[in-house]
C-alpha cells in the first residue's frame, strides 16, 4: 500500500496572526494506494486529491479565502508545490519499480 505524507509549512501564511500554534507544521496524508503512479490519468487524480487536501488544510489554518485571501493563497501555493515535489519523487520510484519488474 502506497501513501505519502504532505507536510504543509504554514508559518509564512501567518505573518499577521503569528502565534506558536499557528506557526506549527501541518501534515496531510493523501492516499494513493489505489492509483498507478506511472499512469497519467491516475496522476491527474492524485493532483486533484492534493488540491483538495491542501485547500482543506489551509482553510483550517488560515480561515476562509474570502477573509484572508493573501494568506490562504500563500499557504495553498507553498503546500501544493511541496506536495507536487513529493509526487515527482514517488513517480520516479514507481517507474523504477515497474522497470525492475520488467527485467
UniProtKB/TrEMBL annotation:
InterPro entries: UrcA_uranyl
Signal peptide as annotated in the record: 1-23
Keyword hit for Signal: yes
Highest rank taxon of the organism: Bacteria
Protein name as annotated: UrcA family protein
Alphabetically ordered keywords of this record: Signal
Amino acid at each position: 500500500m502506497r501513501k505519502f505524507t504532505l507536510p504543509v509549512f504554514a508559518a509564512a501564511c501567518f505573518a499577521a496572526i503569528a502565534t506558536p500554534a499557528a506557526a506549527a507544521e501541518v501534515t496531510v496524508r493523501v492516499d494513493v494506494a489505489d492509483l498507478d503512479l506511472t499512469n497519467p490519468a491516475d496522476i491527474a487524480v492524485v493532483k486533484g486529491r492534493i488540491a483538495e487536501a491542501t485547500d482543506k488544510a489551509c482553510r483550517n489554518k488560515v480561515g476562509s479565502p474570502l477573509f484572508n485571501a493573501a494568506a490562504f493563497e500563500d499557504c495553498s501555493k507553498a503546500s501544493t508545490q511541496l506536495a507536487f515535489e513529493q509526487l515527482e519523487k514517488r513517480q520516479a520510484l514507481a517507474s523504477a519499480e515497474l522497470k525492475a519488474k520488467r527485467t
